[in-house]
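does this look right to u?? iron/sulfur cluster version
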Amino acid sequence: MSAVTTRTTCPYCGVGCGVNAVVENDAVSVAGDAAHPSNLGSLCSKGTALADTVGLDGRLLHPMVDGRRASWDDALDEVAARFGEIIAEHGPDAVAFYVSGQLLTEDYYVANKLMKGYIGSANIDTNSRLCMSSAVAGHKRAFGEDVVPGCYEDLEIADLVVLVGSNTAWCHPVVYQRIVAAQEHDPNKKLVVIDPRRTATAEGADLHLPLAPGTDVHLFNGLLAYLADQGSTSDLPDAEDAVAEARNMGDIAAVAAACGMDADTVSAFFELFAATERTVTVFSQGVNQSSAGTDKVNAIINCHLLTDRIGKPGACPFSITGQPNAMGGREVGGLSSTLAAHIGFDGADRVQRFWDSPTIAREPGLKAVELFEAIERGEVKAVWIMATNPLVSLPHADRAKRALEACEFVAVSDCMRHTDTVDRAHVLLPAAAWAEKSGTVTNSERIISRQRAFLPMPGAARADWDIVCDVARRMGFDGFDFDSPAAIFREHAALTAFENDGQRVLNLDGLADLSDDDYDTLKPLRWPVHSTQALRAAGAMAVQQDSRRLFADGVYPTSDGKAHLVAVTPRGPANAVSDQWPLALNTGRVRDHWHTMTRTAKSARLAAHIPEPFVEVHPRDAERYGVADGALAAVSTTLGEAHVRVIVTAGQREGSLFVPMHWNDQFAARARVGALANPAVCPISGEPEFKHTPAAIAPF
Ligand code: SF4
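got this back:
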């Protein structure tokens, strides 16, 4: 059989690389798509190994009810009936959906529509809450809307790239490769990394600031005051207040002391930032995953607004997202704190008019951590979890486990037969996996790309959007008669334009009447897309050129049309270290694994990079607490204990530990670090503080 090539998108990180998947004689191979504007043909180690992960071993291939194989009719009737009964008896807020940045935009759209427009609750939240909701909240405060203003090309144009709380070399490798390649082309280009750990990214930096955990606001307030002292001014609202608050940090020596660094390093960074007009500041989970996450985001954006470094080539603050479709999910209302199409709850009537739905949620729903707390209290009595494994990934994960075990009704849609979460479901719904899915995703630079199926649906598996629509119809709701992801996408695009009048930047008016053929052949393109005519006349790539940078005109989707600086007051982590728990536990990713390893563990070459869970310890801490390099150690917090291999490294900041998030009960006994992480959250975004849990370490 001749080879068939399908253009699709990588399902891992928010870089959103284009992939050419080739099927020949039932064998799958992948290569980077040179025509995709985000990766230009490159793939990282995870993307390159995608073909290793598409086998059917471990797949969930049939519906199950109470542990027994069931028909689709029986399984879907059970979900519809149990949700219906609980809603009738206890009201719409007694049920919830917990979804995922692994869902495609079309899946997300119908799940959100069902919960907010038909069930009438906003209790739908996503695991994206755990990685980028602080960026969402910071964007809304500063710009009026959740908008990333720049594009990857800005990272190449910039004379200075500042990476904050981001091990980009491991977690967004193709973006990092683009920065490095640009630096090789222009040796004057500088790279600064701000991270408590000396990561692989920090190793390649011109300047590394190993700040104390949780002191990002201290540093960026110090920078804001310094920039103002150097003559930067702004007539934007709140600029004066933000600068006045920032001046409370004192001089550079005081900033350095607060951040646990030497003054020369801080001074070098401030001077470089002040002197470099074309600066991009990239931030990721190290900023977002904090009880002060939203303030940290605004402290960074403040420095760009004060110096007018936004909307220009090579100048912007840049949130880089963790998951392949965290952005698409944000766009269609996957977060409980918004409706759909970036419309807030003040626009509830508008959304209800568009959907012509029987009801509409008028208040924000429960955010991820709150949602599982409400399940534990018995207030939420039925939950439908889609494409995520919260019993590993949530903080205080053992509480989430207890909550699910006590929950009256748990439905799980997943492609895997066994995960920590799947094993606690009353009804299991077999969902399509990456190679079988068709729809769209949006990456960190606002580019919408097609994911296209290149393998047949195995067993009885179905697409997530199809499963959700079927349940909605069985609950008696109209409005879910979609026959394809293209039909859902058209409705999503139309909603973004409905009564928009320029109030929101997210506008896909030009895609609202795409034919099925247009959708099938859709090239990657960046939102906003206002006009079909322009799209067709110019071609997708040209439209993308027009929308690369936003806010160049200084007009923002706020009530006064201006961007806003936010005065932010530095504060430490929610839970401080103590004599009993003297170390700050930080969790994060490794280069070659993804989330809870259901896919990447299938690849021998990926698993070989780091074969077992570990804890990084500074040499003085290793000596102090009696743990040896290569030996096993018990890492404990008030919530639990993990047993992991010790790596003693001077790259780990003294007083801190790092343990990767991936391993779970299936792959290593007692290595589920989510069970150890404290559930403190940012009061604005609800994002958990994964980067700072007081902990102890001892030999095991
Ligand atoms: Fe996939 Fe991200 Fe790697 Fe690109 S950088 S190949 S999107 S994991």
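The chain has a mean pLDDT of 95. idk if thats expected tbh
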